[in-house]
Amino acid sequence: MAAEQDPEGRAAARPLLTDLYQATMALGYWRAGRARDAAEFELFFRRCPFGGAFALAAGLRDCVRFLRAFRLRDADVQFLASVLPPDTDPAFFEHLRALDCSEVTVRALPEGSLAFPGVPLLQVSGPLLVVQLLETPLLCLVSYASLVATNAARLRLIAGPEKRLLEMGLRRAQGPDGGLTASTYSYLGGFDSSSNVLAGQLRGVPVAGTLAHSFVTSFSGSELPPDPMLVPAAGEGPGVDLAAKAQVWLERVCAHLGLGVQEPHPGERAAFVAYALAFPRAFQGLLDSYSVRRSGLPNFLAVSLALGELGYRAVGVRLDSGDLLQQAQEIRQVFRTIAAQFQVPWLESVSIAVSNNIDEEALMQLAQEGSEVNVIGIGTSVVTCPQQPSLGCVYKLVAVGGQPRMKLTEDPEKQTLPGSKAAFRLLGSDGSPLMDVLQLAEEPVPRAGQELKVWPRGAQGLCTVRPAQVEPLLRLCLQRGQLCEPLPSLAESRALAQLSLSQLSPAHKRLQSLAQYQVGGCPPWCPALGSLTLPPTSPLLCSLQVALSERLQALVDSLRVGASP
Predict the structure, then answer these.
(1) For 293-357, where are the E strands, in sequence order?
(2) What's the maximum distance between 2 C-alpha atoms anywhere in the chain?
């Protein structure tokens, strides 16, 4: 897929966006004659972020684009040759030049789906050397995207469905790639738009923005626009000097507000007139460059009423400092009284936008009942995810040559579940998720309406569930390098995310949720590995026996080394 024909492709990762040890392992696999062994990896996370009970799966679209374009260029291979041992067999580098993902198969949670600990976001199978090389890029593409989407979803849940959320964190993001990713996936998570123009061009994210204080303060009031005339919105009649018309309205507004006509800053008014001449159908005012009550508000009203006389409608104001909630209430009240005084009912509903380091706590205040805020701009708190900067995704080997593989480790939390798996979501009669279930791929598929024995993660025993619906979670996305179905658009994935969140129980939507969503396993395969008696032919039991035998042999060897002769 050529980047020239596909604007999104310009944002794709490259094969060498990886860790060096992926290349050293690739050489080891090749030297051992195992480069083409069939292998399967799973990408998942161990804990829900931000102390909550859910995450959103994101980044799949980027992963698919990366995989379909995966090819090491000559320059890539030459660089790897410079960092690997100088006596490396040249045939290895020829092998690298021929690599692509034409034998790679991917199953995945659809982008925008609810995701929970231990449930694979991606299952990646193919030649061992290739799927090993994919580890770091796939983690990079999925982890941050899912984290930002989840963070944005939490902010959307706080704000409620009526407030409009604008992501404006590009200048605070961790570099250009982080900025583009944050703008893309905050939209998927529930934001309405972004200030990031590149996200609009490459990803189709709706873009929005107004003006900065620098625009306002650049005017002194002595500037004369080259063409101060504005024709009526209907397009008929002579042009009108907007600045002169605004001056007339200023006197009337100040009289109503009990202000001297000299109090509003003339430079601010000149800036508003200049902006209105450029955007007569989308005029917005930034009110706090000098004083909201004594300058910004009366100047905005004067220009807005002048525009209104010509048939135009101002669309909004923005506040960027002070007590945003209280100021918004005061401004709305002024809008109402001015609307009644001058018979301009449209003024009552002019949008009020706020910004200024808004986090979850501040958003709760701005979203409360009775708030007059309509639009909330959030930057740092959405793009940097300050409560948790990483989702902690991992990419673990679960099978080689059709045989399960397991990592035991010294840390029980890092132990992996071996074997190729299927994943299902058990739903109640109202469509709400009850539990996710993992089982070996060859196990019988759970059926709706039938009693199911499940061992929830961390539980002391089995529980019985009778789901009204059973939903397979992992969809075949790529099969031997070929796209199995068209990728959903970003807007479609956003709609799926909002639908999924609407079906989640209130207990699992809480910002700090003590009620963790359950993920379990079906016997004979389950997360409580030591608590069940497995059939002798179980592939899981075979894998466990091999792993435990190796651990026991290592212990015996260590005792022998330490023993006296």
Answers:
(1) 316-319, 351-354
(2) 110
Question: From the centroid of its chain, how far is CA 172?
Answer: 16
Q: Given strand 375-378, what is the order of strands in its sheet?
A: 193-194, 164-167, 375-378, 351-354, 316-319, 284-286
Residue 155 CB neighbour total at 10 angstroms:
26
Nearest by Cα to 155 from 249, 22, 52: 52
SS3 readout for 478-523? EECCEECCCCCCHHHHHHHHHHHHHHCCHHHHCCCCCCCCCEEECC
Strands 519-521 and 463-465: unpaired
Helix H or strand E encompassing 399: strand 394-400
What is the topology classification, in CATH, of domain 20-156+388-524? nicotinate phosphoribosyltransferase (3.20.140)
| Among 50, 60, 162, residue whose Cα is nearest residue 109 | 60
What pLDDT score does 421 carry?
94
Report the distance separating Cα 319 and Cα 353, nearest Å: 6
CA distance 62 to 138: 9
What is the per-residue DSSP string for 89-113?
A: -HHHHHHHHT--STT-EEEEPPTT-
Distance CA 527, CA 426 (A): 17
With beta carbons less than 8 A apart as the criterion, state whether 254 and 298 touch.
yes
Q: Report the distance separating Cα 167 and Cα 195, nearest Å.
A: 6
Domain residue ranges in the chain: 20-156+388-524, 209-378
In angstroms, the CA 390 to CA 151 distance is 11
Cis peptide before 90 (omega within 30 of 0): no
Write out the DSSP string of 41-80. Answer: EEEE-SS-GGG-S-EE---HHHHHHHHHH----HHHHHHH
- Report, at the CATH architecture level, how domain 209-378 is classified: Alpha-Beta Barrel (3.20)
**342-363 pLDDT tens trace:** 999 999 999 999 999 999 999 9
Among residues 166, 214, 114, 110, the alpha carbon closest in space to that of 383 is found at 166
pLDDT of residue 532: 36
Please tell me which residue, 431 or 139, carries the higher pLDDT value: 139
End-to-end CA distance of the chain: 66
Give the three-state DSSP class for 351. Answer: strand
Closest CA to 359 of 381, 379, 376: 381
Q: Distance between CA 273 and CA 283 in Å, rounded? A: 9
Confidence of residue 537 (pLDDT cuts 50, 70, 90): very low
Tell me the C-alpha distance between 374 and 164, whole Å: 6
DSSP 356-397: SS--HHHHHHHTSTT----EEEE-HHHHS-TT-S----EEEE
How far is CA 375 from each of CA 106, 107, 272, 367, 472, rounded to the nearest angstrom? Answer: 39, 38, 20, 10, 38
